[in-house]
Amino acid sequence: MEETKNSNSNSNINTKDFIIGTLIGGIVGVFAALLFAPKSGKDLRSDINEGAYQMKGKASEFKDTAQEKGYHWKDKAYTTGSELKRRAMDTTSQLTKNASDKTKELTKTVQSKLQDKRTKEDEALEAAEEVAEAIEEAAEEMKTK
Chain-centre distance of CA 76, in angstroms? Predict the structure, then answer.
């Protein structure tokens, strides 16, 4: 994820740098060609105006391209963010459900073991009472004999 983010960031920086370099290079090239060309003042001014209009058109095209890319990246970021949010919510929901199921299962297991222990204690108590009664009966019989 971080690697993709860095790659996209570098790509955006490289694209921006390229556009800026192209504009600056184009402007410098046009003016250098016009200034060093042997023309009259009127022709030179006309060429400079024409070059300025051409550069304005190219700058407008670059602006439009940059806006389109910006909208594209904005939409992609929104879509990716929404998808990650949905995944996080699904994962959280699933983890909560799993934890709840495990808790219920453990509660049932503990209750079952406690019930088994109580049953065994009750059986042992009944057996002890039966033994005590049997001893009392035996003692009574011994007294009567």
Answer: 14
| pLDDT tens by residue, 97-112 | 999 999 999 999 999 9
Q: Model's pTM, two decimal places?
A: 0.42
Residue tagged 């108590």 (tokens) = 125
Per-residue model confidence as pLDDT tens digits over 77-104: 999 999 999 999 999 999 999 999 999 9
